[in-house]
Write a structure and sequence with these properties.
Blueprint lengths: L2 H8 L5 H12 L3 H5 L9 H12 L4 H5 L2 E3 L2 E3 L13 H13 L6 E5 L5 H9 L5 E6 L2 H13 L4 E5 L16 E5 L14 H6 L2 H4 L8 H15 L6 E6 L5 H10 L3 E6 L5 E7 L6
Helix pairs in contact: 6-7
The structure holds S-adenosylmethionine.
The site of S-adenosylmethionine has 25 residues, from helix 7, strand 4 and helix 10.
Amino acid sequence: MKKLIIQQILSEYFDKYQIDQILQKLTGFTKNQLFFCEELDDITESTLKIITEQSKNWIPFEYIINKAEFYGLDFYVDNRVLIPRNDTEIMVDLVIESVDDQLNSGPVLIDIWTGSSCIPLSILENTPKIIETHVVDISEKALELSKINIQKYKNNIQQYLWSLYSPLISKDFSQSPVFITANLPYIKDNDFDNMSIETITHEPDLALYGWKETWFELYEQLIQQIIQQINQKLLQTVFLYIEIWFDQKEYTESYLTKLGLKYSIHKDNSWIDRCVQIEFDSYLK
Ligand SMILES: C[S@@+](CC[C@H](N)C(=O)[O-])C[C@H]1O[C@@H](n2cnc3c(N)ncnc32)[C@H](O)[C@@H]1O
């Protein structure tokens, strides 16, 4: 088919950037190679129909092209995982900064609720200091997809199918500074006003909803697990990074203050309070 005709058909549903991305996915050509092609023989009318139907059915664009950009890197995505959000990049910035400041050798990275593993892989691609990485997710399908990205970036990462910190409770990390990142499913059930149709209909529920009464329960369980590990001398220097929703700052502050934990709250690219860095020094004996 002629490239011009393909572009015309797709332009009803997608913008120019998206059309370029779709054509690159369908042909395997680079942007530059595509520019010089007039005919794209591999693309048929039925292929285009499948793609335009996907758009009509509100399938997120990233799932259509099986690619999402995060922290300047491309990650494979489909409906097994949450599409990485730019709001989360601040967490990666903060961890890289703290890891690079570490004088102690052998920092360990643990990503709970890993999804596509965009957080640990972005950190590992940008700092050479981390010696050991573990990722946890409660969804087997999410871990299958995370493996694709781990293999793409050729990183040595241990995966665990379980909840929260549970699969790591017997590990002794007391000799290393440990960086724990967690972006939990924090949306209140049925809070549809703050979500797009694409997200509501196609992103996995397990990645979105974890809310019971205070919405913070999963983070509370994780924090309690970490304190328990410190009490048992299996963790010592720990930095925990969590992501919160725009209206959750007050509750977060009151909970962390109640526990006597030192914390700082950081804004995302849209100047919204998003990432909380928590230190556990007050629990060290
Ligand atoms: C909001 S997504 C975050 C994905 C990824 N970290 C990111 O930032 O794009 C949450 C992930 O947590 C997983 N999850 C939900 N409940 C969990 C639990 N109790 N323990 C471990 N993982 C859980 C979901 O399967 C989903 O992949």
